[in-house]
Amino acid sequence: MDVQLTLKILQTVLGSVGIFGNFVVGVVIAKVPAMRTLTNAFIFHQAVIDFLGSLLIVLDSNIVIPAVLHRNAVIAALQCFILESNVILWVIYVASTLNLVMLTTERYVAIVYPFKYVTYFGKKQATGMLVAVWVMAIGYKGTRFLYRQIVDRACVFTSLSTAVSLAGGIVAFLVEYLIPLIFMTFCYVHIILQLKKASSTVHVEPSTGQQGDNSMSGSLLRARRNTLKTLFIVFATYTICWSPNQIAFFMFNFGFPLNLNGAFYLISVALVQLNCCINPIIYSFKYKQFQTGVRVLMKPCCPKLAPAREGESVAVALSHR
Question: Does the predicted model carry a pTM greater than 0.85?
């Protein structure tokens, strides 16, 4: 009981931080013209998804579903199939993972195949990808309510055969965790190799006589590295937050004991929920373009905030095109 109470308090705190942080990210990207790049469109979408997830975490941790469902059949169905099953929250979790995959893909094509970038990542294509995130998430995880049924005004798990339960666990592990993890790992390894190759080709600009790292090419490369480093930390955080829960659930489907009310499982769930609020903190400390956007947005009320260097700002903007 103490563990569950602690988890409830932790969920409320995490959710509140996530609501505030993701709201700030969304406002900065929406209000600062220089932030309106294609990469930031995916980051904005990630912030919207995580904002909704954080909001639902707070609601879920503070709304108690009664053991005896409402007499009205419609209200009882909502209590069981929507609230008790957490179907909306899990749709958001899957959408968050898929959007992170899309964001990684966008950076991968931009850096590894720059001449094909405009073809594959125009506004229409990007919009289609963002819509596809929700279509796939709802289509895949929207069936979660099928695992619940109402029996004598009580919401209970649907009895599934061992084979069906095992197959469902394997599919969930692959689709929600392992395949995205392998794909994003491949992309980041390839991107890092490509950037190392690009760094060796940055040379002295004849017009200035400065070294490459001080030239526009050097600034552009540094901006790309900063974006990549930020997104890699987001990816690493995703891996850390999701791994315990996914591995535990995978082993559970193979017959290993798992106490769904035990400390380990509840902590693994809290880590998943932490993933919804951690990204704004990462942007604040590591993403230089976001830091610049915050300074620009706050400059009217805080005139002492110094703008970024012009050359660096231009490079940062170009690095996302």
Answer: no
